[in-house]
Design brief:
Blueprint (H helix, E strand, L loop, with lengths): L1 H9 L1 H14 L1 H4 L6 H16 L2 H9 L1 H25 L4 H12 L5 H8 L4 H27 L7 H25 L1 H7 L3 H19 L1 H7 L1 H24 L4 H12 L3 H11 L8 H24 L1
Helix pairs in contact: 1-12, 2-12, 2-17, 4-10, 4-12, 5-6, 5-9, 6-7, 6-9, 6-14, 6-15, 7-9, 7-16, 7-17, 8-9, 8-15, 8-17, 9-10, 9-15, 10-11, 10-16, 12-17, 14-15, 14-17, 16-17
Length: about 300
């Protein structure tokens, strides 16, 4: 069973890509799954993240504040501004603009920690940045979305704040509480959590793609290109920031991956909850979930060889 879980987590990119393909080919069947299920699936992923956290993960915020602050500032400036810029350069419509901006304004994704490990990056820094950006997300994600997309659509900052608390922060706190209360039980589940999270993300992608399969097939080339460019520019600029600040190669890799890999499941969830009038708004998050796992695997190999 552990070996199977290892393969699922190691080949997450392939799994998510296969899920997207199935959703495109069988939208009538998979499209019947209610979109609100996305919120529960994301909550389960965040609960799993909480199960893996310990106090040591947060000590880095205080022992190496400069590195974490640099990472978080890069996260919440580079990706939102890139999203806004690309959306306007490619003249995306309202729905896709919202979706791309949401992706850019979300915190780092949990997959970034796995990719950083494979890339021989600073794993402790990666985990610290993911935790810090996730805790900042309830405030910064709605605020940045309002600043960048508020002129295009109505953005309810308070409602988005509450959604992130319920869908992200509360499950993480619950997972952390379970780990502290029942450590022996939690230890038995740790080996299975990466595979579980991979399956949940694949399911989220399936639901979003199936619900918008026809529109995606008819005009999805531009948004696919924008999402790919968003991710690759984030990876490159994240590395450049580390280089300009004379960080070690391991730290540069961590910052690069943390900036480039977003919690795109959260973006799809927020789009589903708060922008239901724009169904295509959830598409960029779903495509990002597929693409950043593929690009992340490639970047990890490149970084690891560079040492």
């Amino acid at each position: 069973m552990k070996r199977l879980c290892h393969y699922i987590s190691e080949y997450m990119g392939v799994l998510v890509l296969a899920s997207a393909a199935l959703a495109l080919f069988f939208p009538d069947v998979l499209g019947k799954i209610p979109p609100k299920v996305i919120n529960y699936l994301l909550g389960l992923v965040m609960f799993g993240m909480g199960l893996t956290l310990n106090l040591q993960d947060f000590k880095i915020v205080f022992s190496r504040p400069r590195d974490v602050i640099v990472g978080c500032l890069a996260q919440f400036t580079i990706m939102p501004l890139l999203a806004w810029g690309l959306a306007h350069i490619f003249s995306l419509d309202e729905a896709l603009l919202i979706g791309v901006v949401l992706v850019g304004c979300c915190p780092g994704g949990t997959a970034s920690n796995v990719i950083t490990y494979l890339a021989k990056g600073d794993l402790a820094l990666s985990v610290g940045m993911t935790g810090a950006s996730t805790l900042l997300a309830p405030l910064l994600t709605p605020l940045l979305t309002w600043l960048l997309a508020g002129e295009t659509v109505d953005v309810n900052v308070l409602n988005m704040f509450m959604s992130i608390l319920w869908v992200v922060i509360l499950p993480i706190v619950a997972g952390f509480f379970v780990k502290r209360t029942w450590p022996k039980f939690t230890e038995k589940t740790i080996d299975y959590l990466p595979a579980f999270s991979s399956l949940m993300i694949a399911f989220i992608v399936t639901i979003v793609i199936a619900a918008n399969a026809a529109k995606l097939l008819s005009g999805g080339v531009v948004i696919l290109f924008v999402v790919m460019l968003h991710n690759l520019c984030g990876l490159g600029l994240g590395y450049l920031i580390g280089y300009l600040l004379s960080m070690s190669p391991a730290k540069r890799r961590a910052v690069s991956i943390e900036v480039g890999m977003q919690n795109s499941g959260l973006a799809s969830s927020l789009a589903t909850i708060h922008f239901a009038a724009y169904p295509m708004a959830s598409i960029p998050g779903a495509i990002f979930s597929v693409w950043h796992n593929i690009s992340g695997a490639v970047v990890a190999r490149v970084y690891a060889r560079g040492k």
